Amino acid sequence: MAVKKRQKTLSHGRPRISNPKERMSSQRSRTIIRTHHRLQKEHAAAVKKGDTKLAEKIAKDIEENGGLKVYQAASKQGQSKDRGGDSSKVLVEWLQDAGVIQSKNSTTEDKGINSKQLRCLEVGALSTKNEISKFPQQIEMTRIDLNSQGPGIEKQDFMERPLPTSSEETFDMISLSLVLNYVPDPAQRGEMLKRLTHFLKNTTTEGAVLPILFLVLPLPCVDNSRYFNELLLTRIMKNLGFSMRKKKKTSKLCYYLFSLTGKSNSVKTEKRKISDGAIMNNFSIVVD
């Protein structure tokens, strides 16, 4: 059945939109995003329970609310300059602060360690013209999305991307901006984080910045969840071999930069209530 088939794919990508110039109020775009996320979670729960009729009804509700096409328009508009802009600007700033890349105006001699291109995988890519894409001499971009919006973005589900068979197929950087929160199931989020480690290069240099993961989440996922907070995120990432190098919070988003410094262990993270409140959400990450 079509409904069940969709559930097998982690819908972290976003579809092509026919009218990218459409404008909507910030309130409307937030309502669209929140409603879509809620319906996606309800749909995933119905499929998991085997309730086909309910799953079909929710799928119909999603389409009646504009579906992924309208969600994409709202999501992409949120990255416009007048709505806060492109999240990769923060990544570029942190890479420059760490000396990983140099400014676009630097000479070849100034680039030093970057005489060899670094490889970056951008999961859930929205554009080929964001800030991280403005350093072609220093960074080789690989962009993937469940529904490519045009040339330069490969249509691919990250969870179905073949695992690397050689170091040439791994990356120095992975960008996961507003992707993990789109995955409807806590255990699937954990699987995504575990899978990331296979795509990052191995390093034997103590204290090295690379390889890195750039992770962006909505602020409420970290600061207003009954089952999740920054302390738990740090613990999960440490168990996966990551150490936090940078963090930044705005009124809407949390930005994190993690270096992969070790190997994953077998420690599990279950869904447990750590706080409670009438207006709190249920975002969580489960690692089996």
Automatic annotation (TrEMBL):
The keyword Methyltransferase applies. GO terms for molecular function: rRNA (adenine) methyltransferase activity. It is found in: Nucleus, Nucleolus. InterPro entries: Bmt2/SAMTOR, SAM-dependent_MTases_sf. Pfam families: Bmt2 (PF11968). Residues 1-15 have a biased composition (Basic residues). Its EC number is 2.1.1.-. Keywords: Methyltransferase, Nucleus, S-adenosyl-L-methionine, Transferase. It comes from the Eukaryota. Coiled coil: none annotated. GO terms for cellular component: nucleolus. Residues 1-30 are annotated as: Disordered. S-adenosyl-L-methionine binds at G124, D145. The keyword Methyltransferase applies. Belongs to the BMT2 family. S-adenosyl-L-methionine-dependent methyltransferase that specifically methylates the N(1) position of an adenine present in helix 65 in 25S rRNA. PANTHER family: 25S RRNA (ADENINE(2142)-N(1))-METHYLTRANSFERASE (PTHR21008:SF1), S-ADENOSYLMETHIONINE SENSOR UPSTREAM OF MTORC1-RELATED (PTHR21008). This is 25S rRNA adenine-N(1) methyltransferase. It comes from Lentithecium fluviatile CBS 122367.
